[in-house]
């Protein structure tokens, strides 16, 4: 049976203070970067926002953006046409409903156009250190399954499993750490099992021969 506590404690030892790799200077920029990051690498998002944030500096700038112009400005991220529409609607919503300040509750964040539960969790944790849930992206999905923490593939069910297994005090660390672990160590096509600090706790890694 998977020793969940040992796993999350080891993860925190390996990644004591995981931080998002999305470059941002304030909550507006983080919000935009998170929206753009769906199905797109953080590296690509950072390349786009390096120029984008010089042009769109506030919620008002984004709310009043011309759709076709914004679509051209974020070309390079996947699904840029739809993302541009949602960014404008989101900015208008945040101004109208929250006076240009992001709410710090998951239930309120998911009402913003383009923000689902995963993105809301990222914003809460990265901006304010608030954990109402656990971030489940493709990396967390893969690593959690490999570690035996879930058997599901659907993000909602995976999050439910993880929230039941993992003490809440570890939710923030687990979310950020496992994203990085999946990105650089437990890589989908070529996992670096012999470089993995979780190897002895992993149902897959622990069975590998010593080299």
From TrEMBL:
<keyword id="KW-0378">Hydrolase</keyword>
<dbReference type="InterPro" id="IPR004035">
    <property type="entry name" value="Endouclease-III_FeS-bd_BS"/>
</dbReference>
<keyword id="KW-0479">Metal-binding</keyword>
<comment type="similarity">
    <text>Belongs to the Nth/MutY family.</text>
</comment>
<keyword id="KW-0411">Iron-sulfur</keyword>
<dbReference type="GO" id="GO:0140078">
    <property type="term" value="F:class I DNA-(apurinic or apyrimidinic site) endonuclease activity"/>
</dbReference>
<feature type="domain" description="HhH-GPD">
    <location>
        <begin position="36"/>
        <end position="184"/>
    </location>
</feature>
<dbReference type="InterPro" id="IPR003265">
    <property type="entry name" value="HhH-GPD_domain"/>
</dbReference>
<keyword id="KW-0456">Lyase</keyword>
<dbReference type="InterPro" id="IPR011257">
    <property type="entry name" value="DNA_glycosylase"/>
</dbReference>
<comment type="function">
    <text>DNA repair enzyme that has both DNA N-glycosylase activity and AP-lyase activity. The DNA N-glycosylase activity releases various damaged pyrimidines from DNA by cleaving the N-glycosidic bond, leaving an AP (apurinic/apyrimidinic) site. The AP-lyase activity cleaves the phosphodiester bond 3' to the AP site by a beta-elimination, leaving a 3'-terminal unsaturated sugar and a product with a terminal 5'-phosphate.</text>
</comment>
<keyword id="KW-0255">Endonuclease</keyword>
<feature type="binding site">
    <location>
        <position position="186"/>
    </location>
    <ligand>
        <name>[4Fe-4S] cluster</name>
    </ligand>
</feature>
<feature type="binding site">
    <location>
        <position position="193"/>
    </location>
    <ligand>
        <name>[4Fe-4S] cluster</name>
    </ligand>
</feature>
<keyword id="KW-0234">DNA repair</keyword>
<protein>
    <recommendedName>
        <fullName>Endonuclease III</fullName>
        <ecNumber>4.2.99.18</ecNumber>
    </recommendedName>
</protein>
<feature type="binding site">
    <location>
        <position position="196"/>
    </location>
    <ligand>
        <name>[4Fe-4S] cluster</name>
    </ligand>
</feature>
<keyword id="KW-0326">Glycosidase</keyword>
<dbReference type="Pfam" id="PF00730">
    <property type="entry name" value="HhH-GPD"/>
</dbReference>
<keyword id="KW-0540">Nuclease</keyword>
<dbReference type="GO" id="GO:0051539">
    <property type="term" value="F:4 iron, 4 sulfur cluster binding"/>
</dbReference>
<keyword id="KW-0004">4Fe-4S</keyword>
<dbReference type="InterPro" id="IPR023170">
    <property type="entry name" value="HhH_base_excis_C"/>
</dbReference>
<dbReference type="GO" id="GO:0019104">
    <property type="term" value="F:DNA N-glycosylase activity"/>
</dbReference>
<dbReference type="InterPro" id="IPR004036">
    <property type="entry name" value="Endonuclease-III-like_CS2"/>
</dbReference>
<dbReference type="GO" id="GO:0003677">
    <property type="term" value="F:DNA binding"/>
</dbReference>
<dbReference type="GO" id="GO:0046872">
    <property type="term" value="F:metal ion binding"/>
</dbReference>
<keyword id="KW-0238">DNA-binding</keyword>
<feature type="binding site">
    <location>
        <position position="202"/>
    </location>
    <ligand>
        <name>[4Fe-4S] cluster</name>
    </ligand>
</feature>
<dbReference type="InterPro" id="IPR005759">
    <property type="entry name" value="Nth"/>
</dbReference>
<dbReference type="GO" id="GO:0006285">
    <property type="term" value="P:base-excision repair, AP site formation"/>
</dbReference>
<keyword id="KW-0408">Iron</keyword>
<keyword id="KW-0227">DNA damage</keyword>
